[in-house]
Amino acid sequence: MTLKLHRYPGNPILVPSTHNAWETDNVFNAAVVAYNDLVYMHYRAQGLDRISRIGCAISTDGYHFNRLEQPVLEPTNDFESFGVEDPRITEIDGVFYMLYTAYSPHGVRVSMARSTNLIEWERMGIVLPDEDNKDAALFPHKINGRYCMFHRRMPDMWIAYSDDLIHWTDHQIIMKPRPGLWDCERIGAGGPPLYTEYGWLVFYHGFNEDRIYCLGVALLDLEDPGKVIKRQDEAILCPATPWEHWGDVPNVCFACGNIEFDGQYHVYYGGGDHVMAVASVAKSDVVEWMMD
Ligand code: BMA
């Protein structure tokens, strides 16, 4: 069986706004979390100065969003002077942790911030120092007593473990690009992994020699996420609409958030580095695929 994500017919669900100078150009690559019966979307926004900031939009149904006027995170430090990008948010024990890409003349670094209300964020700093790295996402539970996260050392997807969320060790490659397939050049995490009784469900991105960014799906062992139980050969979503083909960057479906509601997994993704969209798959189909 081949899993496919089905686009919400009302896509795109968030587009740039001419009301705010900081988000006139692109709104994309959003973290998404459900909290207090609302869906919060923390999106990467670019305006006239092309600096990335993180905006926040809130929804009662996961499809229609109202945005805050001001960004919730914008560059204030030297290590992120060119922008804060591609947030992924995970709730652990009532605290929300955002991993984001801090971009500066020094390169791109995995950085962390925390919040208890999703609006006010406290920086925890760079967590993977001295290396160009991005596409980091935290697991929602500790594994064998330690925190776990995905990150990306080019061109592979890695995991690492930590006792305190700040110092990360036991780095290990979990998935590599596959020659001849849609993800043959480079891969990286989508949103945080989703817990299921069959394993960690992972939506990730990859691209090929034509730089077409598609999304894929894999299942990792619950106790040892370094073990890949299953990885679908076919992409689960590839650029096919005008706003995925022609945005700020052509041919991009790039996800940073996934949540479940109404019996479906919903993957939120940036189309063409320009707008936000959502596509979904029935949990029952995913269960069938996991057991297949
Ligand atoms: C990646 C990241 C993403 C972006 C993608 C496509 O390297 O920079 O933020 O969506 O490229 O341009």
In short:
With 292 residues, this protein is mostly beta strands. It has helices at residues 242-245, 283-291, and strands at 6-7, 26-35, 38-46, 52-59, 65-67, 83-92, 95-104, 107-115, 122-126, 134-138, 147-153, 156-162, 169-175, 186-189, 194-196, 199-207, 213-220, 228-231, 253-261, 264-271, 275-282.
Which structural traits does this protein have?
4% helix, binds beta-D-mannopyranose, 2 helices, 292 residues, five-stranded antiparallel β-sheet, globular, Tachylectin-2, Chain A, mainly beta
Spell out the blueprint of helices and strands.
Elements lengths: L5 E2 L18 E10 L2 E9 L5 E8 L5 E3 L15 E10 L2 E10 L2 E9 L6 E5 L7 E5 L8 E7 L2 E7 L6 E7 L10 E4 L4 E3 L2 E9 L5 E8 L7 E4 L10 H4 L7 E9 L2 E8 L3 E8 H9 L1
Antiparallel strand pairs: 1-21, 2-3, 3-4, 4-5, 6-7, 7-8, 8-9, 10-11, 11-12, 12-13, 14-16, 15-16, 16-17, 17-18, 19-20, 20-21
The structure holds beta-D-mannopyranose (BMA).
Beta-D-mannopyranose binds next to strand 6.
Describe the structure.
The chain contains 2 helices and 21 strands. Strand 20 and strand 21 form a beta hairpin. Strands 14, 15, 16, 17 and 18 form a 5-stranded antiparallel β-sheet that branches. A 4-stranded antiparallel β-sheet has the order 1-21-20-19. The chain has a 4-stranded antiparallel β-sheet with strand order 2-3-4-5, with no helix packed on it. 4% of the residues lie in helices and 50% in strands. The chain has a single domain (6-291), classed as Tachylectin-2, Chain A, CATH 2.115.10.20. It is globular. It is mainly beta. The site of beta-D-mannopyranose has 9 residues, from strand 6.
